[in-house]
Give the backbone structure.
Amino acid sequence: MTMSPLGPSTLAVHAGAPSPRIEGSAVTPIFQGSVFEHTGATEYSAIRYPRLSNLPSHRSVCAKLAALEGTEAALVTASGMAAITTAVFAVMAGGGHLLAQNTLYGGTFTFLRDVFKDIGFTYDLIDPTDPSSWEGKLRDDTLAIYTEAVGNPNLVVADHTAVVDFAQEHGLVSMIDSTFASPVNFNPAAVGYDIVLHSATKYLNGHSDLAAGVIAASEEWIDKIQPRLTHLGGTMDPHSCFLLERGIKTLVLRVERQNANALAIAEHLEGNPAIDRVHYPGLESHKGHTIAKELFRGFGGMVTFEIKGDGAAAAAFIDRLRLPIHAPSLGGVESLVTRPVTTSHLAMTTDERAAAGMTENMVRMSVGIEDVADLIADIDQALAG
Ligand SMILES: *Cc1c(COP(=O)(O)O)cnc(C)c1O
């Protein structure tokens, strides 16, 4: 009997489970060992060792992630930045030029700005919403184009179809950080992206208790990236594999609730006299709405809004909130709220932040899975002061 392709909720629960089950266990046990008996391996990569990402703990969570992203293979890493830096290093090995979107996660931006020059790589930033401007930034040695599914913190949506077409036309590797979308809302490989990256610290794990990253791609790319990960050493430890696998099982339920909560909050805030502007791809007023509607199954759990007034007004609003935790990061079950200029993008200069569209009065909310009526009531009391 051939089964029709399984849906994402089924894959999140079942995909990658060891077969046969290990000692009958419904969950993949934690293979905490770092030493395994030599059983005749004739290749280095077949020697069982945690840093080689080849314990049963790695195999099951990697297979689950590949199934969810619709790629042939996947790797897990010790953090999102380990996934990003390892994959970029593998793609750019030998030196070359990268085109990257101008609204990047702060850590990725400072990696390009501060580390690329030390390792002989170069980059230029592009406006991901303006494909006509990209060709002018191409160089003979351009190797790759790098975007984010939804940009941080303005929730800019790149013209992803144009990115993939541009990459194919010019022989570039297309890479995307899909953390904000999660595989529930978007599968970048399905539109043609070569390498999909995640900070699994966020939605994939979803419980604010783990640092983790993911690289999902074809077998061919994973075979090239895996030795880099082995050498650079940003491998995931077995206990983290277990936590990530457990977290992913509820991914679809969590993200669907977060999508619904965030949309309700964005709609509630839009037009509120205490708010200058709401940034959410699910709103028709958002510049990326048309592309988001076409490509995404949901608009995500991140809402950014600008409080009327200055940075102090935004800080006072945050202080008055009772439910969301005042904290950077995102993607967990609990709502979080932060001012990006004071946290995620602190390492950027004022000019760099302005160029990425960030303002002092901007508040970014990672909407959790709470009852949305409670979140809205809390926001309203905090706005009323
Ligand atoms: C958090 C984050 C990262 C970095 O991930 P870590 O797990 O903190 O290393 C990269 N990209 C995006 C979009 C993120 O939100």
